[in-house]
Amino acid sequence: MTPGPADLAAAIAVFEDAIAALDQALLDSPVAYLLGQQSRWVNLYDRAVTALLAAGRTADALAVAEGSKSRLLANLMGRGELPAPPAVPADLAARERQAADRLRALDATELAERGRNEPTGDGHRRVADRAAIVAELRAVWDEMAAHGPAAADYVALRRGDRPTAAGLLRLAGALPAGTALLSLFDTGERTLLCLLRPGAAEPLVMAAAIDQDTLLYDFLPNYEDEIQHGADHRALGRPLTHRWRELGRPLLGPLLPHLAGLDHLIIAPEGVYHQLPLHALWIGAADSAESQTTLIDHCAVSYIPALGLLERRRRREERDDAPAVVGRPLSVVLGYTNADPATDKGADERDIFLGEARAVAARLGVAPLLDQAANGAALDEAIQQPLRRLHLSCHGYFLPGDALASGVLLADGVGESAVYTARQFMERRLAVDMVTLSACQTGISGSLGGDEMAGLSMALLSAGASALLLGLWSVNAVTTAALMDRFYTLLDGPGGAEATKAETLRRVMLTLRDGQLIPPRLEFDLTDPRYFDPADPYYWAPFVLVGDWR
Question: Which parts of 308-454 fold into alpha helices (H)?
Fold first, then answer.
């Protein structure tokens, strides 16, 4: 017998009940259990999305898809410094804030210790402590929610509730004209694109024509070879095929007819797409005159781990003690490399890294912290105050086996080097409008389970940074220095910003790609260090803007 509408409605009800029960369990679950279970939920979310789309409830399908992403990061951000609505009595708000701070600290500590070899031995005590805090918070939240719709909305945010269809539609409606949201929902078997424009009653849902075998055994290996290991590939003189860029046609090609009128796209990736420069993929038809058109040719692109984080970002901005981000004094620039100045290569590297720091500092009107002055203690001291810009010109590291041990290489203050890790950032509170890590691989993340991605981006966002400018691979130092100088010139020059962060980054990338920032040097062999092709995305496309694009 063919299933009818009643059967579909019944199936949706079952899925929604299962997801609601799962959400209740999430709040009670320690971090280790939460992360260990995430990859098992994919099938439930996929079935729920499929049923909702079949019922024509596309906004609800988008809410379920986005609710499957970055749940731990959403919880950590939601329990940060958010103002309670005026209707909530001050003593009740204080009780809730104190308990939420304790829960956030407990979860952040457990997450920071994930991957360490040495056990702390106090796991059972933490589980008991966490259960007591959650019970206290549940009682406080029930009391708070009785104080009106605004208070109930606040509770949902603090509790870590998944985004609702109505909430995502409101979020899109509050965006500037010409800005849209794009959600990628990937189950490992299929990928859906959900495009939501301001004022739209429902998102537009499209299926990507991705063959998983081609993705895993063709596109991704080619990307790893030509981009993530790009310096070695070029030094060996191996030809560049740019095969990985063809992924854009089956993945993002369905968007092409719908980009008219857009000047900015906010992308919430999923799975392997977190690691790819989606803005640099070809989206034009292979046999057309626009075959090598990219997203960034059409509009500015910024990224967010999950669309629900945008709502948390907006609420944070409303706190009473929000930092002033206008004016040039509140910026800090650090520059460091452990390169040996006695060698030609080391001397050149020092000129580039420290020169970048000096140039950026000059644009921001501050004195840079260089060499041994650029150490972890100086960074800790700098972030005690609200900052407009925090720029680190240094080496970066990503450790696949322990992503939270990834970090940036700073001085140790006594003549040596030390890695300032993602764990250390997670333990801080950052009131920073934009953090720029021009180091290598600072935008790479590793999966903690499901779509929970760990690395510097997660650490900085959970600590409170509004926007991040990060590199997805080991970037070329010369082109990075030029890109950063131009970026800050346009964003923080004497005349003020000409455009948003996202649009400014787009303009600089296109200027670099078109050979206007650094002229091409194609007369040299590919193995010659002097060779430079600005159209190669290895040089112009490594940086991504995450978070607040304005």
Answer: 308-317, 344-364, 376-382, 422-426
